[in-house]
Amino acid sequence: MQLTDIARRFIVHWGEMGSSWGVNRSVAQIHALLFFHGQPLHAEELADTLGIARSNVSTSLKELLNWNLIRVTQVLGDRRDYYETSSDVWELFRTIVRERKEREFDPTVRLLGELARDPALAAESPATQDRLRSTQEFMQTLGAWSEEMLRLSPATLEKILKLGAQVQRFVRQGEADASSQPVTPMPPQLPPF
């Protein structure tokens, strides 16, 4: 398969970004080619098109399968395995977030919970105990929020993201207005009886 200039630039960039994301360049390039091409490809096509060793393609495909970013499919009349990825960017986003959360975030939350329950924590300074517990609480809250976001439909998630940007602009504007206004003290509030 001959790559167009657009395809080549996309695949090369995606591969370069892979290292920033903690992913091998070949893994990222294979995923980029499958995403860009939009059709199932077999391992030999991937190796030939990208100019990488067949063994590297095989290892990269296993990693992509472990991340649930590609799936194996068959083509009528061909015994080889073909590989494809979703063309839905929201599905890919949710898969990546879910997989990274399970591999990186959740183990840290579990460890913080174990440490918070460990009686030996009492030997640490109160400030250290507070930092550990507040970190655990923050990460649990963030984890629960991300789980809720992953359950939403792409259309709803997109609306929330756009709404969030509008809320941020509103809050920033309010902060800017408040900082330019003289502060007048508020009278003390009496508790309700």
UniProtKB/TrEMBL annotation:
GO terms for molecular function: DNA binding; DNA-binding transcription factor activity. Residues 174-193 are annotated as: Disordered. Keywords: DNA-binding, Transcription, Transcription regulation. It comes from Inhella proteolytica. Belongs to the GbsR family. It comes from the Bacteria. The keyword DNA-binding applies. The keyword Transmembrane does not apply. This is HTH-type transcriptional regulator. Pfam families: MarR_2. Residues 184-193 have a biased composition (Pro residues). Residues 22-80 form the HTH marR-type domain. Signal peptide: none annotated.
